[in-house]
Structure prediction request, 317 residues.
Amino acid sequence: MTELLDLGPHAGFILTCYAITLATIGGLFAWLVIDRSRLTDALAKLEAEGVRRRSSRGGSAGEPT
Amino acid sequence: MGLMDLANPTRFMAFSARLLPWLGAACALAFAAGLYMTFFVAPDDYQQGATVKIMFLHVPAAWLAMMCYSIMAVSSLGTLVWKHPLADVSARAAAPIGAAFTFLSLVTGSLWGKPMWGTYWVWDARLTSVLVLFVMYLGLIALWRTMDDPIRAGKAAAILTLVGAVNLPIIKFSVDWWNTLHQPASVIRLDGPTIHPTILWPLLTMALAFTLLFVILHLLAMRNEILRRRLRTLQLGTASTRIATAAPQAAE
Prediction:
């Protein structure tokens, strides 16, 4: 553990790199999760209004959609 | 299931949903091993001291910055030549991730450069060509956002991506072609790596972890892009139905 904390005179540069990397990757994940949540909510809202994709309508070819 | 079967977005969604938990577990294991080796196994460099620990972030980020653009270039070929249904989805989803990894390689390189070179930045060939790569990522993201029609935007972005791919060999060989402050290649060389195994193995483990992370992020972004296109199609369909029903009423 002592060795872990002993990053020498440039510890600030090393820790800043790890912090920025963590923040950037965390930001990417957060953006993807929020984007997915927004998209699934909008799709669910449309489905609740009765709007369906052709592939999920399940009717026969002659059936009105 | 053949590779071409995955060209169907619905099959891709099902396949990626099954794959993601396994990739997540593998990625977590690789990062645990990589970070343990970084902080407890890898020795300090005899010249650079502990700042060599920045390399375990900087090098994988730089590799992924280039790999991501290579994936976008192959996807662009898929868009233009084979009109592969997922090719444009793949390219568009990869762009922000590639920009993020390029940003990380620039920032970590800059923070490594200050204590080792005495400066955060020099306009040498390697640093400048990576900065150009970052600007290209941002330009492609902007291009996709300026056009409403994803098919038209995809074609334009695919052409620009392929033109920009000329920057990849420039980045790779810049340290050989020009006199740069950046060190020459030390891992992928014809005569083998010049790094001692006690530092090379943690680096390769971190590179594996970052690559798995990239695959996870790319799959998640592709799934979102497919949902975005489904939503757009449904919204356009709903709008055209409303216009069609409203037009006869207006005529009356």
